[in-house]
Amino acid sequence: MGAAQDLSMLREAFSTLDVHGYGDVLQCMRCGFCLPTCPTYRTDGVETQSPRGRVAMIKAVVDGRMNPSEEFAEHMYHCLDCRNCHTVCPAGVKAGELVLDARHRIEEHRPQGVVKRFLLEYAIRDQRRLSRLLAPVRMYQRAGIQALVRKYDLLKAVSAGLSHLEAMMPDIPAKPLTETSQEEIPADGKEKGRVGFFIGCAMNLLYPEASRATAWLLSRAGYTVVIPRAQQCCGAPNIEEGERRVYREMAENNVDLFLGKGVDFVVTDCAACGNELKSYGTLLGGRKRNSRYASVFSGKVRDVSEFLAGALGPGIPFGPVDRTACFHDPCHLCHAQGITTPPRELLRRVPGLRLSEVPDAGQCCGSAGVYNITHADRSMKILAAKVEAIAKTGAKTVLTSNPGCMLQLEYAKRRFMTDWEVMHISPILRRSLARGEEKGGSE
Amino acid sequence: MDVQMVLPFYHQTFGPLDGRRMTVPLSRKLEELLGREKVFFSEADRLCYSYDATPLVSHLPEVVVRASTEEDVHVVLEAAAKEGASVTPRGSGTGLSGGSVPVDGGIVLLTTGMNRILAVDADDLSVTVEPGVITADLHAAVESKGLFYPPDPGSMKISTIGGNVAENSGGLRAMKYGITGDYVLALDTYFVDGSKVLYGTKCMKDVAGYNLTKFLVGTEGTIGVFTKITLKLVPKPQAKKTILALYDDILAAGRTVSAIVSRKVIPSTLELMDDVTIACVEEYAKIGLPRDAAALLLIETDGHPEVVKEEGAKIEEACRENGARTVRVAKDAAESAELFTARRMALSALARVKPTTILEDITVPRPAIPEMMAAIREAAKKYSLRMGTFGHAGDGNLHPTCLTDERDKEEIRRVEAAYDEIFRKAISLGGTISGEHGTGMAKSKYLPMMVGPKAVEVMARIKGVFDPQGRLNPGKIFRTEAR
């Protein structure tokens, strides 16, 4: 009985897709310009794996020409949400956002698994809670069990999927940043203003040293850095999985929290968080009072490179860092936020840093949140292409500014035996500025 | 794989065949013959191959096959012949006349999986490719060797060479370099019965029998399926110069086009944009175009540096003497790219204004461009439509683009009426209903008016010789049906 009923409910849900969304669907003129840039079309070569195909499916479901079936739902989850299609679409169709909207409608109308609900509705709401939940993993890594498992490939016998999952697992530092940093870091020198530092869950748990460098840079640029303890997840994982109730609650909490601290800007060093925070203004629409505050909040959000490119004035000297590097554009930075120049501008100011361009710049690395776990095969194909492109640059350091990309590119080291090191841009900028300071003079 | 080899499987699974039509679906049979990974027939698969880039048309195929070898094409055609199924060849689906829309269902045969560049012959200036090679990939491959394949259709970043040959695609460089058909030397072609013909050589001179290569180019997938294509190449031009001229009067822009040609200069690019297009581009991209400009010409000349210099000066002179309001000559590649921005943005800017964008591609002799532009404007006014026109003024190929909404049925009817008048006017001026998009479904209705009933009859007889049952890309060129 269930299936038929679910279908009709879903059909109803799609018939209420808002006019703006539907207008966007109609706006697609099917020119196919999105095909060559879409990572899934590049790997699979079929129309169902393209933005044009996804928009056609959504339109067909809205128009009642196609059933909102399990197959349709699956297709909505094949998208990496890299938004490369947004960048190239001549007609301004946001296929990636339409897919997320479709996921939302699908998830609203089907029962949610226990694990998913636990993660999206409970675990990520509190950074301390999330950190505690990772305690067993830390133990697994520190007690040497991981070394044993990897050495003898123990999980292969259990399941290939589990083995892949284990192999993907990054090293988890003992303490997240939120447990060790102050709530307010004074500006270095004369205060130019106050920035709220939004610390993404992944940066906090996996790359606390990179985020510590970000805070140092913000202070060095002359800003007091405010790190509110009660910040919650930006909600990107919820949006990706079609969950919007808890998303709203967390978003509203973050808006109130940061606006309450009287900050001039909200800076983040995670590209995915940055995009999500910038979207609060539109996604919290509907509840009038909140949406206005959300728009004010979103207006203050800056990616770390976007902020520093302006804030690190010409008076601040950059010291030499001798490296051959390339910058990997996180999709949520270059396509979702349209930021490509600021990180390059900053890196070019570092003497001794030779920056080369990745030939397929703007192509996804295949990380895409949990895509490398849920769609492992395709994700690895996408990663292999990225590895090949990066190899052409001759770079020994791959710089980026998104934890998902960092995890994926670090995994490339284990899987494809790459010889480059992966770094967030903040630590390298910090090193350069610290050296510039030591010398005390100009570059 | 031989059909006979798999028949025992059918007997086991579906019971014995009784000599009549098999009850096993076509999709299952194709799976058996080709393997599951090449055959697609789910609801989503079928939907996603029901369209190309043509507005307002969509027909579901029964099954989609992605061929990766010549043998796959052969197998599909033989199976289709056995089953009496129709076959619609398709590349990347960027056509604008419905050429790859499966009007009668049946099989959509994708050639995108056959995408190898087989040989670049730098000594004899030719390249041999499979049909699924992307046009821009071919450009990159030959240009890295100092060679040049000039045809550059608007969709070249994703369009396939097979599709370009089938539609005889044009592009921006047509005025000086010609169109796809001018570069095709040889074709391996499968006909709908599964037979194959290899015709053409790499020789510039080859008059053996009827020229089947010339004939097959532009047949829109109604005569055969190409599996190997040999194209002529030319040396890559060493230099180029880009010029942008703005006008207060579209007639002055038209006069400039004639003035350039009468100075014995053939630019590699000579593009025109009207006031509506300019205003939309400026609205969207804010690149500093004067909103009150009536027309814009983007001109490029290429070749030997000395020649380019001389031709550039002549073009500039022609612009100034014919009332250009401003003339900008690019000093370097960066500025040249900047001047191209406006033209590159034209379609994007227009497409954002309203939900549905309908683009046509009439072509008239160059001297008739001003009159054609006036007629387009008149039609837009008469039917209260928003229409912007841009196009390749150098070869008379214009794209009157209607900004509309497919949900507004009444307006769509007015759009059709306006285009009807525009087509008639183009024909009366000695022009054509389609310069580069093809006849397909979109313009089959106008073909008799365009070429006359006798020519249509001749075409139909030729079609009948190759495909008596009308199974290869049915519903194209000959069917009289509104879009």
Write up what this structure looks like.
The complex is a heterodimer of chains A (443) and B (483). Chain A has 25 helices and 9 strands. Chain A is of the alpha/beta class. In chain A, the strands form 2 sheets. Chain A has a 5-stranded mixed β-sheet with strand order 1-3-2-4-5. In chain A, strands 7-6-8-9 form a 4-stranded parallel β-sheet, sandwiched between helices. In chain A, strand 8 (397-400), helix 24 and strand 9 (421-424) form a beta-alpha-beta unit. Mean pLDDT of chain A is 89; it is low at 1-5. Chain B folds into 3 domains: 3-110, Uridine Diphospho-n-acetylenolpyruvylglucosamine Reductase, domain 2 (2-Layer Sandwich), CATH 3.30.43; 117-235, Uridine Diphospho-n-acetylenolpyruvylglucosamine Reductase, domain 3; 238-349, 2-Layer Sandwich (Alpha-Beta Plaits). In chain B, the strands form 4 sheets. Chain B has a 7-stranded antiparallel β-sheet with strand order 15-12-14-13-17-18-16, with helices on both faces. Chain B has a 5-stranded antiparallel β-sheet with strand order 5-6-10-8-9. Chain B has a 4-stranded mixed β-sheet with strand order 1-2-4-3, covered by helices on one side. The model of chain B is unreliable at 1-22 (pLDDT under 50). Chain A binds chain B through residues 23, 26-27, 29-33, 35-36, 45-48, 50, 53, 56-57, 60, 65-67, 69, 71-72, 75, 90-92, and chain B through 40, 42-45, 47-55, 66, 92-94, 112-113, 134, 136, 155, 157-159, 347-348, 351-352, 355-357, 405-407.
